[in-house]
Amino acid sequence: VLQCLGISCSSKLNSPFLCNFSGVEAKQCNSAIRKMPTDQEQQKILTAFVPKNGCLNFTEKNYELLVAGFGLKGHAVGDIPGVYLKVVKVASVSLLALNKGKKERPRS
Known about the structure:
108 residues, mainly beta, CATH 2.40.50.140, NA-bd_OB-fold, ribosomal protein, structural constituent of ribosome
């Protein structure tokens, strides 16, 4: 999936995001602006989607995020153009477990 981008030959990319949070506008009839962490790696800007409501609060600058493919064969999903990655883990803790309150984010 990510091999065509020249990033990695696996479907998951584990890298520390030196991230800025940018807003990506949704397509036509949806007026939402989705905040997403962006990382500049190998002179390419990677933008990842943070699933679930409120999970963006668990991510901070210089946190290590595990990113997986989002959609079919690396294509964008739904009304978010150009976003083909999603965040799975934050600081080696599952984002789903953080959202449900089963685990806490490790302190740095």
